[in-house]
Amino acid sequence: MVAFMFAPLGLGGGVLFVPIFLYLLEWEIHLAIISSLSLVWMVSLGSRTAHSKDGFAVFEVGKKGAVAAVFGEIFGTFLSALFIMKLGDLPIKIIASLLLVWVIYYTVKKQLSEKTHAHSNEVEEIPVVEGRLLNIYRAGCFGAGSSSGLLGIGGGSVFVTIHRTTLGFKQHQAAGTSYIIESWMVPTGIIAHLLVDGSAPMVFDTVGFYFVPICMLVAGAAWLGARAAIKMVPQKILTYPFLIAVVAGLIRYLIDIREILLVG
Protein backbone atom coordinates (compact mmCIF):
# COMPACT_ATOMS: atom_id res chain seq x y z
CA MET A 1 0.00 0.00 0.00
CA VAL A 2 2.87 2.38 0.74
CA ALA A 3 4.36 1.69 -2.71
CA PHE A 4 1.00 2.16 -4.46
CA MET A 5 0.26 5.46 -2.70
CA PHE A 6 3.75 6.97 -2.77
CA ALA A 7 4.80 6.07 -6.33
CA PRO A 8 2.82 8.92 -7.98
CA LEU A 9 4.33 11.46 -5.55
CA GLY A 10 8.00 11.01 -6.36
CA LEU A 11 8.60 9.30 -3.02
CA GLY A 12 10.15 5.92 -2.43
CA GLY A 13 8.13 5.45 0.75
CA GLY A 14 11.12 5.54 3.09
CA VAL A 15 9.47 8.15 5.31
CA LEU A 16 6.90 5.46 6.17
CA PHE A 17 8.92 2.26 5.64
CA VAL A 18 11.42 3.21 8.34
CA PRO A 19 8.76 4.07 10.98
CA ILE A 20 6.86 0.86 10.09
CA PHE A 21 9.96 -1.24 10.66
CA LEU A 22 11.02 0.66 13.78
CA TYR A 23 7.69 1.06 15.54
CA LEU A 24 5.37 -1.67 14.25
CA LEU A 25 7.86 -4.51 13.74
CA GLU A 26 10.28 -3.23 16.40
CA TRP A 27 13.37 -3.86 14.30
CA GLU A 28 16.68 -2.25 15.24
CA ILE A 29 17.84 0.79 13.26
CA HIS A 30 20.41 -0.92 10.96
CA LEU A 31 17.88 -3.51 9.82
CA ALA A 32 15.17 -0.87 9.34
CA ILE A 33 17.43 1.31 7.17
CA ILE A 34 18.70 -1.43 4.83
CA SER A 35 15.23 -2.97 4.44
CA SER A 36 13.71 0.44 3.74
CA LEU A 37 16.32 1.25 1.09
CA SER A 38 15.72 -2.11 -0.60
CA LEU A 39 11.99 -1.45 -0.90
CA VAL A 40 12.57 2.20 -1.90
CA TRP A 41 14.67 0.94 -4.81
CA MET A 42 11.79 -1.28 -5.94
CA VAL A 43 9.39 1.66 -5.76
CA SER A 44 11.84 3.76 -7.78
CA LEU A 45 12.19 1.16 -10.53
CA GLY A 46 8.45 0.54 -10.80
CA SER A 47 7.45 4.18 -10.79
CA ARG A 48 10.27 5.28 -13.10
CA THR A 49 8.97 2.84 -15.73
CA ALA A 50 5.46 4.25 -15.44
CA HIS A 51 6.53 7.91 -15.57
CA SER A 52 8.98 7.38 -18.45
CA LYS A 53 6.28 5.82 -20.61
CA ASP A 54 4.31 9.08 -20.61
CA GLY A 55 7.32 11.37 -20.94
CA PHE A 56 7.28 12.72 -17.38
CA ALA A 57 10.83 11.63 -16.55
CA VAL A 58 13.22 14.36 -17.75
CA PHE A 59 16.31 12.22 -18.31
CA GLU A 60 18.54 15.09 -19.46
CA VAL A 61 18.07 16.84 -16.11
CA GLY A 62 18.06 13.75 -13.90
CA LYS A 63 21.41 12.47 -15.17
CA LYS A 64 23.05 15.80 -14.25
CA GLY A 65 22.18 15.29 -10.61
CA ALA A 66 22.71 11.52 -10.40
CA VAL A 67 26.49 11.53 -9.80
CA ALA A 68 26.25 14.12 -7.01
CA ALA A 69 23.41 12.12 -5.45
CA VAL A 70 25.46 8.89 -5.53
CA PHE A 71 28.39 10.56 -3.76
CA GLY A 72 25.94 12.02 -1.24
CA GLU A 73 24.49 8.54 -0.65
CA ILE A 74 27.94 7.14 0.19
CA PHE A 75 28.71 10.09 2.46
CA GLY A 76 25.38 9.72 4.28
CA THR A 77 25.91 5.98 4.77
CA PHE A 78 29.23 6.48 6.57
CA LEU A 79 27.71 9.32 8.60
CA SER A 80 24.81 7.07 9.61
CA ALA A 81 27.13 4.31 10.81
CA LEU A 82 29.17 6.84 12.80
CA PHE A 83 26.12 8.42 14.45
CA ILE A 84 24.55 5.09 15.40
CA MET A 85 27.82 3.75 16.79
CA LYS A 86 28.64 6.87 18.83
CA LEU A 87 25.27 8.42 19.70
CA GLY A 88 22.50 5.93 18.95
CA ASP A 89 19.56 6.65 16.64
CA LEU A 90 18.36 9.90 18.28
CA PRO A 91 20.49 12.20 16.04
CA ILE A 92 19.14 10.43 12.94
CA LYS A 93 15.54 10.97 14.04
CA ILE A 94 16.22 14.65 14.80
CA ILE A 95 17.82 15.18 11.39
CA ALA A 96 14.91 13.36 9.72
CA SER A 97 12.46 15.66 11.49
CA LEU A 98 14.33 18.80 10.43
CA LEU A 99 14.46 17.53 6.85
CA LEU A 100 10.70 16.93 6.79
CA VAL A 101 10.05 20.41 8.21
CA TRP A 102 12.13 21.84 5.34
CA VAL A 103 10.17 19.79 2.79
CA ILE A 104 6.82 20.90 4.22
CA TYR A 105 7.83 24.58 4.23
CA TYR A 106 9.01 24.67 0.61
CA THR A 107 6.16 22.52 -0.68
CA VAL A 108 3.55 24.80 0.89
CA LYS A 109 5.44 27.85 -0.37
CA LYS A 110 5.46 26.43 -3.91
CA GLN A 111 1.77 25.54 -3.73
CA LEU A 112 0.81 29.05 -2.61
CA SER A 113 2.95 30.55 -5.37
CA GLU A 114 1.22 28.41 -8.01
CA LYS A 115 -2.20 29.52 -6.74
CA THR A 116 -1.11 33.17 -6.93
CA HIS A 117 -0.02 32.77 -10.56
CA ALA A 118 -2.81 30.41 -11.54
CA HIS A 119 -4.12 32.74 -14.26
CA SER A 120 -0.78 33.41 -15.87
CA ASN A 121 -0.74 32.79 -19.65
CA GLU A 122 2.99 32.16 -19.84
CA VAL A 123 4.10 28.92 -21.47
CA GLU A 124 6.05 26.81 -19.01
CA GLU A 125 9.21 25.16 -20.33
CA ILE A 126 11.88 22.97 -18.80
CA PRO A 127 14.73 25.31 -17.77
CA VAL A 128 18.25 24.95 -19.11
CA VAL A 129 20.16 23.51 -16.16
CA GLU A 130 23.62 25.02 -16.59
CA GLY A 131 26.05 27.32 -14.79
CA ARG A 132 24.93 28.55 -11.38
CA LEU A 133 21.59 26.73 -11.60
CA LEU A 134 23.43 23.47 -12.30
CA ASN A 135 25.69 23.99 -9.27
CA ILE A 136 22.67 24.65 -7.05
CA TYR A 137 20.91 21.59 -8.46
CA ARG A 138 23.89 19.31 -7.89
CA ALA A 139 24.35 20.62 -4.36
CA GLY A 140 20.71 19.85 -3.66
CA CYS A 141 21.08 16.36 -5.13
CA PHE A 142 24.14 15.73 -2.97
CA GLY A 143 22.12 16.77 0.08
CA ALA A 144 19.25 14.49 -0.94
CA GLY A 145 21.65 11.61 -1.43
CA SER A 146 23.21 12.25 1.98
CA SER A 147 19.77 12.20 3.60
CA SER A 148 19.03 8.90 1.89
CA GLY A 149 22.18 7.21 3.15
CA LEU A 150 21.81 8.72 6.60
CA LEU A 151 18.10 8.12 7.18
CA GLY A 152 17.25 5.06 5.08
CA ILE A 153 14.84 7.00 2.85
CA GLY A 154 15.07 7.36 -0.92
CA GLY A 155 15.47 11.12 -0.71
CA GLY A 156 12.40 11.52 -2.91
CA SER A 157 10.84 14.16 -0.68
CA VAL A 158 13.97 16.28 -1.14
CA PHE A 159 14.35 15.55 -4.87
CA VAL A 160 10.72 16.44 -5.57
CA THR A 161 11.04 19.65 -3.56
CA ILE A 162 14.23 20.61 -5.46
CA HIS A 163 12.68 19.85 -8.85
CA ARG A 164 9.55 21.82 -8.03
CA THR A 165 11.05 24.86 -6.27
CA THR A 166 14.43 25.21 -7.97
CA LEU A 167 13.56 24.04 -11.50
CA GLY A 168 9.82 24.80 -11.51
CA PHE A 169 8.70 21.31 -12.58
CA LYS A 170 5.11 20.17 -12.28
CA GLN A 171 4.37 17.29 -9.90
CA HIS A 172 4.54 14.46 -12.46
CA GLN A 173 7.76 15.82 -13.96
CA ALA A 174 9.28 16.28 -10.52
CA ALA A 175 8.33 12.73 -9.54
CA GLY A 176 9.51 11.06 -12.74
CA THR A 177 12.85 12.88 -12.75
CA SER A 178 13.38 12.06 -9.07
CA TYR A 179 12.97 8.37 -9.82
CA ILE A 180 15.65 8.54 -12.51
CA ILE A 181 18.15 9.64 -9.86
CA GLU A 182 16.86 7.30 -7.15
CA SER A 183 17.03 4.22 -9.37
CA TRP A 184 20.81 4.74 -9.65
CA MET A 185 21.46 6.21 -6.22
CA VAL A 186 19.59 3.87 -3.88
CA PRO A 187 21.36 0.63 -4.89
CA THR A 188 24.64 2.42 -4.15
CA GLY A 189 23.34 3.10 -0.65
CA ILE A 190 22.25 -0.52 -0.22
CA ILE A 191 25.72 -1.80 -1.16
CA ALA A 192 27.39 0.81 1.05
CA HIS A 193 25.26 -0.15 4.07
CA LEU A 194 25.92 -3.84 3.51
CA LEU A 195 29.67 -3.18 3.48
CA VAL A 196 29.74 -0.66 6.33
CA ASP A 197 27.38 -2.15 8.92
CA GLY A 198 27.09 -5.76 7.70
CA SER A 199 23.29 -5.81 7.86
CA ALA A 200 22.71 -8.35 5.05
CA PRO A 201 22.55 -11.37 7.41
CA MET A 202 20.01 -9.54 9.59
CA VAL A 203 17.69 -8.98 6.62
CA PHE A 204 17.61 -12.60 5.54
CA ASP A 205 17.57 -13.95 9.10
CA THR A 206 14.52 -11.80 9.83
CA VAL A 207 12.56 -12.01 6.55
CA GLY A 208 14.19 -14.95 4.80
CA PHE A 209 13.42 -15.90 1.20
CA TYR A 210 10.14 -13.95 1.36
CA PHE A 211 12.13 -10.75 0.91
CA VAL A 212 12.53 -11.44 -2.83
CA PRO A 213 8.81 -11.77 -3.70
CA ILE A 214 8.06 -8.86 -1.36
CA CYS A 215 10.44 -6.67 -3.41
CA MET A 216 8.79 -7.79 -6.66
CA LEU A 217 5.34 -7.08 -5.24
CA VAL A 218 6.41 -3.59 -4.13
CA ALA A 219 7.81 -2.81 -7.61
CA GLY A 220 4.55 -3.93 -9.23
CA ALA A 221 2.43 -1.93 -6.80
CA ALA A 222 4.54 1.16 -7.48
CA TRP A 223 4.10 0.80 -11.25
CA LEU A 224 0.35 0.30 -10.87
CA GLY A 225 -0.03 3.28 -8.52
CA ALA A 226 1.96 5.60 -10.77
CA ARG A 227 0.06 4.54 -13.92
CA ALA A 228 -3.29 4.99 -12.21
CA ALA A 229 -2.39 8.45 -10.93
CA ILE A 230 -0.97 9.65 -14.26
CA LYS A 231 -4.16 8.68 -16.08
CA MET A 232 -6.76 9.70 -13.50
CA VAL A 233 -5.40 12.21 -10.97
CA PRO A 234 -4.65 15.89 -11.80
CA GLN A 235 -1.09 16.91 -10.97
CA LYS A 236 -2.09 19.62 -8.49
CA ILE A 237 -4.13 17.16 -6.45
CA LEU A 238 -1.04 15.00 -5.82
CA THR A 239 0.58 17.73 -3.71
CA TYR A 240 -1.92 17.21 -0.90
CA PRO A 241 -1.31 13.48 -0.23
CA PHE A 242 2.41 14.26 -0.56
CA LEU A 243 2.11 16.78 2.27
CA ILE A 244 -0.07 14.49 4.39
CA ALA A 245 2.47 11.66 4.11
CA VAL A 246 5.38 13.92 5.03
CA VAL A 247 3.51 15.46 7.98
CA ALA A 248 2.57 11.97 9.25
CA GLY A 249 6.22 10.94 9.15
CA LEU A 250 7.25 14.11 10.96
CA ILE A 251 4.68 13.62 13.74
CA ARG A 252 5.85 10.06 14.37
CA TYR A 253 9.49 11.10 14.59
CA LEU A 254 8.64 13.96 16.97
CA ILE A 255 6.70 11.62 19.26
CA ASP A 256 9.64 9.23 19.39
CA ILE A 257 12.15 12.04 20.02
CA ARG A 258 10.00 13.31 22.89
CA GLU A 259 9.83 9.85 24.44
CA ILE A 260 13.60 9.35 24.16
CA LEU A 261 14.30 12.74 25.77
CA LEU A 262 11.83 12.15 28.60
CA VAL A 263 13.30 8.74 29.36
CA GLY A 264 16.82 10.16 29.15
How big a fraction of the residues is strand?
Answer: under 5%
What Rg, in angstroms, do the CA atoms define? 18 Å
Count every helix, treating DSSP H or I runs of 4 or more residues as helices: 11
By DSSP, the count of extended strands is 0
**Structural class assignment:** mainly alpha
Shape: globular
Structural features, described:
By secondary structure, the protein is mostly helical. It has one domain (2-114, 126-263). The chain is 79% helix and 0% strand. The protein starts with a helix and ends with a helix. Residues 119-123 have low confidence and may be disordered.
Essential attributes:
mainly alpha, globular, 0% strand
Brief summary of the model shown:
The chain is an all-alpha fold.
Break the fold down into its secondary structure elements and pairings.
Elements: H1 2-6, H2 14-24, H3 29-53, H4 59-87, H5 90-116, H6 131-151, H7 156-165, H8 171-197, H9 200-206, H10 211-232, H11 239-263
Helix pairs in contact: 2-3, 3-8, 3-10, 4-6, 4-8, 5-7, 5-11, 6-7, 7-8
